[in-house]
From TrEMBL:
Protein name as catalogued: Protocadherin gamma-A5-like isoform X5
Main localization of the protein described in the UniProt heading: membrane
GO molecular function, one term: calcium ion binding
Domain Cadherin: start-end pairs: 6-61, 62-166, 167-276
Example GO biological process: anatomical structure morphogenesis
SUPFAM superfamilies in alphabetical order: Cadherin-like
Organism listed in the record: Labeo rohita
């Protein structure tokens, strides 16, 4: 092997390197040299050659163990990976500095010689960052230094740490009375920032009574879509408005939930005829009022009192019956001056 790496000039005795010398394979060579004159006398000597290291090897990174996913509630100091780094060079050329990207919630900690741990350095939040590409860099102490890199793809697994949030602080809905059953009243919606089953939202009515009956006999809700339906026809004259609570619950274990108030306002329809309370009419009899023959214009004949259980424009406020033949104003002959 020595003859493939070194040669000697037979005349001058000059020893030359003729092959590739690798410090990492052979740190020293011992070469036996013999000198012989023309008379046949000889002598020998041993040449010891020490190979000086050159920084010609990059550090080698070996991932001993690695958790490709870590829960977002992992405490600081949780070990993500164990790393071994070797550099076959010597001296400063083999001294390693290991580091990772700045501004990440992780850090490198030395454990044993040439061994390092990648650990969490602060709290994780999957909702902010769901994946990290962590670049591990190993740099030796040579001049110039050599380096190598290894990228670890780490996923942050979800923890059910967010309750569903409704899109509105409260909901108001209007529905006309006399509605057919199964009429859609409104849709509520809640969003959960978690992932997978933890983000699946279901909707429920919080039980209670309404007019002495279970709320569920009046209202139902689709647990998946949040659509609220009327189970029966509403009567404005019996129920003008009511409040109820809707719960949005996620699919986590244990589940998290939030409630919202829904205000239901029943709108009046003109479904009631006015009722005349005075003058009182019995059966099919005609109500008669006696008026003096000498009554002047503006004479109060009677007061008509009527009620209508509807509201607003649907309610009866005044009733006028125009007697066009007997009572006429000279200036306004078609107007009967009744007062209520």
């Amino acid at each position: 092997m020595v003859k493939t790496l070194f040669s000697i000039d037979a005349d001058s005795g000059e020893l030359k390197v003729i092959g590739d010398i690798d410090y990492e394979k052979h740190k020293q060579f011992k070469i036996k040299v013999e000198a012989k004159d023309h008379g046949g006398l000889t002598d020998s000597s041993e040449i010891i050659i020490d190979v000086i290291d050159v920084n010609d090897n990059t550090p080698k990174i070996t991932i001993m163990s690695f958790s490709s996913a870590v829960a977002e509630d992992a405490t600081p100091g949780t070990v993500i990976a164990m790393i071994n780094i070797q550099d076959p060079d010597s001296g400063d050329n083999s001294k390693i500095t290991c580091s990772i990207d700045m501004n990440s919630p992780f850090k490198i900690m030395a454990s044993l010689t040439n061994y390092y741990n990648l650990v969490t350095d602060s709290e994780l939040d999957r909702e902010q960052t769901a994946k990290y590409n962590i670049t591990i860099t190993a740099v030796d102490g040579g001049n110039p230094p050599l380096s190598s890199k290894e990228i670890l793809n780490l996923k942050i697994s979800d923890v059910n740490d967010h309750a569903p949030q409704f899109e509105q602080e409260s909901y108001n809905a209007f529905i006309a009375e006399n509605n057919p059953p199964s009429t859609t009243i409104l849709t509520v919606k809640a969003v959960d920032m978690d992932w997978g089953q933890n983000a699946k939202v279901s909707y429920f009515l919080i039980g209670g009574d309404l007019n002495g009956a279970p709320l569920a006999s009046y209202i139902s809700i689709n647990s998946e879509s949040g659509v609220i339906y009327a189970e029966k026809s509403f009567d404005y004259e019996q129920l003008k408005s009511f409040k109820m609570q809707v719960k949005a619950q996620d699919g986590g274990s244990p589940p998290l939930s939030n409630n919202v108030t829904v205000n239901i306002i029943i709108q009046d329809q003109n479904d009631n005829a006015p009722q005349v309370l005075y003058p009182v009419q019995t059966g099919a009899s005609v109500v008669a009022e006696i008026v003096p023959r000498a009554a002047d214009v503006g004479y109060l004949v009677t007061k008509v009192v009527a009620v209508d259980v509807d509201s607003g424009q649907n309610a009866c406020e005044r009733i006028f019956d125009v007697f066009r033949c007997l009572f006429r104003d000279k200036l306004h002959p078609n107007v009967l001056p009744l007062y209520s």
